[in-house]
Specification:
heterodimer; A: 15 helices; B: mainly alpha; 0% strand; elongated
């Protein structure tokens, strides 16, 4: 069978690819070959990929085709190429987590649970993706593997720490990428690259086989160019997993079937206060336009968001440092220069601060949950401003200069601090660069976030057009 | 909550307490990061919460 237009100017989305493969209009092998060829051609200008898993991809694709030939159903993501942030275990490969130190680890014995789940749905892994070292960053400026460049402007960051994941999807190299989000590492790069992202409820998806960063705050989730693809990836990744102690034992709760249920009965408000004051006016305006398109007239103030951000910062500093303390003792020089002093500082914080931060987290959670008595979904900017230039140390928000790298997560940290589900939605451009919005719901209400996302998408808020990186 | 003074003396004694030997060239950078963390952490250190309050995450056998 001939390769489809998956190599041409309008690569298909995951649902389109799966439909074509299942209908045997194109073989999964041809899709995999075309995807890998496109990656090899286009990734040089972006540096999203750290490895291409060609042999594995062709094997998996052949299995999909064989199942179809035998009249079997490979699953809803049959033949869909996907890639993963390189902190996910891939059997037979060393899990780098963006680091130099991890190169010395033995290869993973098995795939991470998320990979096993999505491949049960028929998806085909084509490679692993660049990230900030040990996920401690918002820019994917990695000294060991090079920066990942924003496909919309290669002089700008792709965001982080899942920059490779976002850039690969934004550039049309893969329709779906898997990533992680501790303080904003799915939402920030999705915002900077103009695509959709999902950070589910804390504990919704198994993190088993994903190299940790901050166990109290780590989530995993997908990135995609359409809401349907995002939902399909999320559905495929679900399932209880005893290998992750934080993973909910709740049964799979598919959301794809309810995407088009509309907005009836969903009370939506726009976050004011902290979430406006810490974003550029042009960004707030974009969110306001999206809110208006959804018919939202109500504003709401999320109380104590500054406390929540502060608590997340302290928890991250302490837990992140503790994870790496043995290596900080023996080989600090092998860490990414951008993070090593920050890690060491985290190891030296008073224990009372960590306990206080966890206590604040519970207090803040209870305050926010009271809001959800009157509202179902809250809209807020994902990032204070669009992507900064690679190498830029500072930017300004409302005329106030501040450090660029840690402050890209100003608006995401208060939300992930308490594990709320968030869809990140592309809501246009500011100063020529994409910008995104958070669609936030109460725990376990991912379906509401995705229904709102779908309505936005129908109203023209779509992923930014595919840009060939560096071209 | 009173804030410690994050200076070279603090860094050296805290590093020793956790078994970190810091070369001299690292100290200034670590102090800078501690001071940054302190500035950001300040709002979280203010609330007077019940010290008997259970903290998250909670370990259960």
């Amino acid at each position: 069978m001939a390769a489809m237009s998956v190599t041409e100017s309008a690569p298909l989305d995951a649902m389109g690819i799966a439909a074509a493969v299942r209908a045997r209009h194109v073989s999964a092998v041809d899709v995999a070959r075309a995807t890998i060829a496109r990656i090899r051609q286009a990734d040089t200008g972006i540096n999203a990929f750290t490895a291409v898993t060609e042999a594995r991809a062709l094997d998996a694709a052949q299995r999909v085709d064989a199942e179809l030939a035998a009249g079997q159903d490979p699953g809803p993501l049959a033949g869909v190429p996907y890639a993963v942030k390189n902190l996910f275990d891939v059997a037979g490969m060393t899990t780098l987590a963006g680091s130099k130190i991890n190169r010395e680890l033995p290869p993973a014995a098995r795939d991470a649970t998320a990979l096993a789940h999505i491949e049960r749905a028929g998806a085909v892994l084509v490679g692993t993706l660049n990230m900030d070292e040990y996920a401690y960053g918002f820019s994917t400026e990695n000294s060991h593997y090079g920066p990942t460049r924003n496909p919309h402007d290669p002089q700008r960051v792709a965001g982080g720490s899942s920059g490779g994941s976002a850039a690969a999807v934004a550039a049309g190299l893969v329709p779906i990428a898997l990533a992680s989000d501790t303080n904003g590492s799915i939402r920030v790069p999705a915002s900077f690259c103009g695509i959709w992202g999902l950070k589910p409820t804390y504990g919704r998806l198994s993190r088993a086989g994903a190299f940790p960063f901050v166990s109290s705050l780590d989530h995993i989730g997908p990135l995609a160019r359409t809401v349907s693809d995002l939902a399909a990836a999320y559905d495929a990744m679900q399932g209880p997993d005893p290998l992750d102690p934080a993973c909910s034992q709740a049964p799979v709760d598919p959301v794809s079937a309810s995407l088009d249920d509309g907005l009836d009965g969903i009370r939506i408000a726009r976050a004011a206060g902290y979430f406006e004051e810490r974003a550029e006016p042009a960004v707030v305006h974009k969110v306001a336009l999206a809110a208006r398109a959804l018919g939202v007239t109500q504003d709401i103030e999320i109380p104590h968001a500054d406390c929540a951000r502060a608590a997340a910062f302290v928890i991250t500093a302490c837990e992140g440092a503790q994870l790496h303390l043995p290596n900080l003792r023996s080989r600090a020089h092998d860490f990414e220069p951008l993070i090593v002093d920050r890690l060491i500082a985290g190891a030296l914080l008073p224990a009372a601060w960590y306990v206080q931060a966890q206590r604040v987290r519970r207090w803040y959670y209870e305050a926010v949950m009271r809001l959800f008595a009157d509202v179902d979904v809250i809209l807020a900017p994902a990032t204070p401003r669009p992507a900064q230039r690679i190498g830029e140390d500072t930017f300004s928000i409302r005329g106030i200069p501040m450090l660029a790298r840690p402050n890209a997560g100003l608006l995401t940290q208060p939300i992930s601090c308490i594990g709320l589900p968030v869809v990140e939605a592309p809501v246009g451009k500011v100063d020529g660069m994409p910008i995104g919005m958070q669609i936030i719901a109460a725990p376990w209400r991912e379906a509401l976030c995705l229904r709102v996302a779908r309505e936005l998408e129908k109203r023209g808020f779509v992923a930014e057009p595919i840009v060939s990186g560096g071209a | 909550m009173p804030l410690p003074v994050f200076d070279e003396s603090y860094v050296r004694s805290a590093a020793a307490a956790v078994g970190l030997e810091l070369p001299a060239e690292r100290v200034a950078g670590v102090i800078e990061h501690l001071q940054r963390i302190a500035a950001i952490a300040a709002p979280a250190l203010e609330p007077q919460l019940d010290p008997a309050e259970e903290i998250a995450p909670v370990w259960r056998p």
